[in-house]
Amino acid sequence: MAVPVSQMYSVASYVLSNKLRGVKRYPLVLMLEPLFRCNLACAGCGKIQYPDHILDKRLTPEQCWDAAEECGAPIVAIPGGEPLIHPEIGRIVEGLVAQKRYLYVCTNAILMERKLKEFTPSQYLTFSVHMDGLKNEHDLAVCRDGVYEVAVRAIKEALKLGHRVTTNTTLFDDANPDRVRKFFDEMMALGVEGMMISPGYSYHKAPDQQHFLKKSRTKELFSRILSNPKGSWKFNQSPLFLDFLMGKREYQCTPWGNPTYNVFGWQRPCYLLQEGYAKTFRELLDTTEWQDYGTSKNEKCAECMVHCGYEASAVSDTFGTVSGFARTAKLTMLPTSR
Amino acid sequence: MTDSTAQGADHTDSLEGRVFRPASSAELEEAVDLAFDYRGDVTLGLASGEVLVGYLFNRHVKGECPSVEFFPEDESVSRTIPYSTIASIAFTGEDTANGKSWEAWVSKKESERRAEAQRVEEDARSRGLL
């Protein structure tokens, strides 16, 4: 299993307790962006296009810890920007681990080898390394040669030190299914705990507007990639979300499932769209017009199948329906039965 | 609304270089929406005569006193500015989402590929293979 039992138990009990209490909207993963500054300018990224004085702003460790407490999600992902650029990332992580949040530091790994000494291995801490494919595909996606090799070195070093390491991969419409399958083999051979995959979101601020996936193409692509999966492949995400990407299940988006906090505040309505900011998490939940977002409700959501909207829907399906639970159990025990 | 283009501005889809002087609340709302969506600094001309340069990152249209939230470029904390005090909005900062980084990368990769193709061709020619 790609996700440790203790983490599965934590998430399961959190979701079930919310369901039993009749809570309609609850967060699953806090997307904590402590800065927007990055040391790459990836073609499909719409997150870092800001003036310098905004890129120089940082959330303090205290702001990060308070946001996690306020939100209450059992999992915290730290994307950005590149979080390892933050001079206090070690303290931020330490505080979130002390809160017993399952933490994913999403990094391009350029600074990882240098920074590993700032982190203590923990069951709560995972480095989620951005890898968009084999060497050629990855270096092209991140617009810099040599980054793939740097990331592979960093993954090996982190594993050697006893850290949990996963990969996160964003796919676009030029992905070659055979090459992606080979990439999965390479990542698992490195010894990572699991992989996370998602189609890219068509950020209208991203530099490359030509290669974002449409829904029908997403399903076709992921079907070709994930059919007949190898026994060695492990995915650090809901099996039902992978079913969804393959077109085997239909979901509505859960935009409050992965709320986003950054230097502007709590982002409405989700990690991908920027319709405004709330000062508190409660204000975000209570005043966002959620009915305006999601599949068939908003043109900006029309082609989106990204994990931050639909993984929470998949998890809710697991714990909310018999068929969802049975399918999750089957795919967890027999991942090659897909 | 009165909309002028600053001298020397790049005439592309970007708003960079444009200046808006809204004549009504509807026009002001429209101009603020454009500024909110813009990924560069703007210059706000206030009715008081004050001029502020910075990043407009939020707006509250509803309520009795619509306002924007704004990070001045040289201040660490944001300021809240009522719509009613805004006289003009100029898109003075570089549009950081103009896509030029991707174009530059593709162009670099293409030139590398062309250079490689040329090297292979020259090598083949020197070996008498062409």
Concise summary:
The complex is a heterodimer of chains A (338) and B (130). Chain A is of the alpha/beta class and 338 residues long.
What would your notes on this structure say?
The complex is a heterodimer of chains A (338) and B (130). Chain A is α/β, with parallel strands linked by helices and 338 residues long. Chain A has 13 helices and nine strands. In chain A, α8 links the parallel β5 and β6. Chain B is an alpha+beta fold. Chain B folds into two domains: 89 residues, SH3 type barrels (Roll), CATH 2.30.30; 31 residues. Chain B is built from two helices and seven strands. Chain B has a seven-stranded antiparallel beta sheet with strand order 1-2-7-3-4-5-6. The longest helix of chain B has 27 residues. Classes of the chains: A alpha/beta (338), B alpha+beta (130). Chains A and B meet through loops of A and β4 and α2 of B.
Binned, the helix content of chain B reads 25-40%
> Gyration radius of chain A, to the nearest Å?
18 Å
The major beta sheet of chain B can be summarized as: 7 strands, antiparallel
Overall structural class of chain A, as computed from helix and strand content, comes to alpha/beta
The number of domains of chain B is: 2
Shape of chain A: globular
Main structural class of chain B: alpha+beta
Major β-sheet profile of chain A: 9 strands, mixed
Strand content of chain A: 5-15%
Mean pLDDT of chain A: 93
- Tell me the number of strands of chain B: 7
CATH level 3 topology of the largest domain in chain B:
SH3 type barrels
Oligomeric state of the chains present here: heterodimer
Low-confidence stretches of chain A: none
Tell me the total number of β-strands of chain A.
9
List the helices and strands and how they pair.
The complex is a heterodimer of chains A (338) and B (130).
Chain A: H1 5-20, E1 29-32, H2 52-55, H3 61-71, E2 75-78, H4 89-98, E3 102-107, H5 112-115, E4 125-130, H6 135-141, H7 147-160, E5 164-171, H8 177-190, E6 194-199, H9 215-226, H10 239-245, E7 260-262, E8 265-269, E9 274-278, H11 281-287, H12 307-320, H13 322-333
Parallel strand pairs in A: 1-2, 1-7, 2-3, 3-4, 4-5, 5-6
Antiparallel strand pairs in A: 7-8, 8-9
Helix pairs in contact in A: 1-12, 3-4, 8-9, 10-12, 12-13
Chain B: E1 2-5, E2 18-21, H1 25-37, E3 42-46, E4 51-60, E5 67-72, E6 79-82, E7 86-90, H2 100-126
